[in-house]
Amino acid sequence: MGFYNYSAVKMDGKEHSMEEYKGKVVIVVNTASKCGFTPQFKDLEELYETYKEEGLEIVGFPCNQFASQDPGSNDEIHSFCQLNYGVTFDMYGKIDVNGSNTHPLYKYLKNEAKGTLGSNIKWNFTKFLIDREGNVAERYAPTVNPAKMEEKIKELLGRK
Questions:
Q1: Which of 134, 135, 59, 145 has its CA nearest to residue 97?
Q2: Percentage, residues of the chain above pLDDT 70
Q3: pTM: predicted TM-score of the whole model, two decimal places
Q4: Is 13 exposed, middle or buried (0-12, 13-18, 19+ CB in 10 A)?
Q5: What is any Pfam family matched here (predicted)?
Q6: Which active-site residues does the annotation give?
Q7: Residue 108 — φ and ψ, nearest 5°?
Q8: Helix (H) or strand (E) holding 136
């Protein structure tokens, strides 16, 4: 099973396949609205605006597993992201990224790219970078600002 074999429910309530992102460079990130790293939404949106025409996609997955920092409903979370950070990249419904109810996509991502805690997600805003073939190219800790991913993104987009 690869990245494109998974699907998830977007904020619109409909199941969407990761195949929608075939041939794109994708950042997959677990998000939270009330976290010290929440301002990364702004940085992620800036990357998206800069590189979307070249094939960058960002998919956000709200998660309430870390200090209950995303307790709202999917609608509340979606509104928060749009109103406060102007998020236009794809946001999916809230999921679990650790534990017995881990979303299958996150089981796959964590298996493909281990972090400092082994396969577990350490905190909100752990980021996975997927190449155009659907391979996990890199995993970034929550403390890594999205701007620090830019060189690798450009490389995967085929820029010199």
A1: 59
A2: 96
A3: 0.93
A4: exposed
A5: GSHPx
A6: 35
A7: -65, -50
A8: strand 136-140
